[in-house]
Amino acid sequence: MSRSLLITNARAVTLAGPTSPRTGPALQDLAILPRADILIENGLIASISPSPLPTPHSPPPSSTIDAAGRVLLPAFIDCHSHACWAGDRIDEWQRKLRGVPYLEILKSGGGIMSTVRAVRAASESQLRELLDLRLNAMLRCGSATVEVKSGYGLSTAAELKMLRVIRTAADHAARSTGQTVIPTALLGHAIDPDIPNFVDTVINETLPAVHAEFPGITIDAFCEQGAWSLADCLRLFDRALSLGHPLRIHADQFNSLGMIPEAIRRHARSVDHLEASTEADLDLLAASDSFGVILPACGFHVDGRYAKVRRFLDRGGKLALATNYNPGSAPTPSIPFAMALAARHGGLSIPETFHAAISNPANLLNLSDRAQITPGMRADLLLLRTTDERSLAYEVGHSPIDSIFIAGRPL
Ligand SMILES: [Zn+2]
Fold first, then answer.
1. How many domains, the chain?
2. What residues flank ion ligand 1 with Cβ within 5 A?
């Protein structure tokens, strides 16, 4: 017998519309049905109609939930995270709070290389256990779909280890909770001073090894002073493109090195960070087919600087927001927190935060089977405690989410 669930009397934030990127005035429209009944069958939305249904559903659903006017919306899609890591950076953060300069922290073994050492030392099962805990934390914050990057291995063996752990965790999540996990190979995250000719090694050894085992996986890099230079990123990208890999790029977090025009030229799926982007570059990005992704938890945790994207949005830019969940610059699994920050510091309207956290990241990750409450879509849904969807971006410090449904199954 088929499994069915009827949710009645919901304020349905449907986000109904095309599965293509939402831009411009379309970002203001959440396609809300103030009182709706939503029928879910076999994990998919079967129907949505104004409450009450004209005739009782036949046969009666397996179970019914009365939403009592509370908000029902599609679950979040966190399109940028580094949730696979070992060790922690809390001591380092405490030193930073006491005013120790970052360079001194780096010299004493802190910073990203401390996470790299911990990841290399961890076994696959230890890494897997840590990743499972974090995926669950992200799910509890409403992210039914998450992207997870490698990038703390740096060596060929350690990058492959991370990607295998992410793939195994993804298989397990799909079978257990139903959460969708999408891996990205962040091969250009940092420069390992102990590996001779590190960039050449990544391009000539790590990338082909990743290509052999993970064909078609998205390749990512961190273009920044002290990390990967523009020229080195482009060498990696051109080789990756020739092997058929899509591209994403971390750019302009602290310094603008000129990556945006090059990323656009190579049809990168997205350019992520944008805190230090020039207005001219943001205008180019807005007119391109690449997404901009903002990661406002970095501004909160690191230095109070946020990407300002009002003009980018007004010029038709394709925007997503994400947690960037990682131990160094964004220790949060929460998309609602990122929405709260984006509304306060990024220049987004409240409806724009919803599309940036749901419909647009679905398109960025090539997922056309979710992110709206319309017939045929996956029933990855969130039921809030509140009757006002704006509470998601308004409230901070606790979760306004009451229940989470993955493919129609309550968590
Ligand atoms: Zn990142």
1. 2
2. 324
Domain that holds residue 288: 77-364
Tokens matching residue 327: 């131990």
Ligand 1: centre distance to CA 404 (Å): 26
Between the alpha carbon of residue 91 and those of residues 101, 111, 199, the distances in Å are 14, 11, 30
Report if pTM > 0.85: yes
The sign of the CA dihedral 73, 74, 80, 84 is positive
In this structure, the answer to whether residues 59 and 131 fall within a common structural domain is no
Report CA(173)–ligand 1 centroid distance (Å).
Answer: 22
| Element holding 172 (H helix, E strand) | helix 156-175
CA 150 to ligand 1 center in whole angstroms: 10
CATH code (residue 304)? 3.20.20.140
Assess whether 148 and 220 both reside in one domain. yes
Write down which residue in 364, 380, 398 finishes a domain. 364
| Strand ranges across the sheet with 291-294 | 76-78, 143-149, 180-188, 218-223, 248-251, 270-273, 291-294, 319-321
Tell the residue number behind the tokens 């001591």, with chain if given: 91
How far does residue 250's CA lie from ligand 1's centre (Å)?
Answer: 6
pLDDT of the chain along its 411 residues, tens only?
Answer: 468 999 999 999 999 999 999 999 999 999 999 999 999 999 999 999 998 776 777 778 999 999 999 999 999 999 999 999 999 999 999 999 999 887 788 778 788 999 999 999 999 999 999 999 999 999 999 999 999 999 999 999 999 999 999 999 999 999 999 999 999 999 999 999 888 999 999 999 999 999 999 999 999 999 999 899 999 999 999 999 999 999 999 999 999 999 999 999 999 999 999 999 999 999 999 999 999 999 999 999 999 999 999 999 999 999 999 999 999 999 999 999 999 999 999 999 999 999 999 999 999 999 999 999 999 999 999 999 999 999 999 999 988 999 999 999 999
Q: How far is the CA of 102 from the centre of ligand 1 (A)?
A: 19
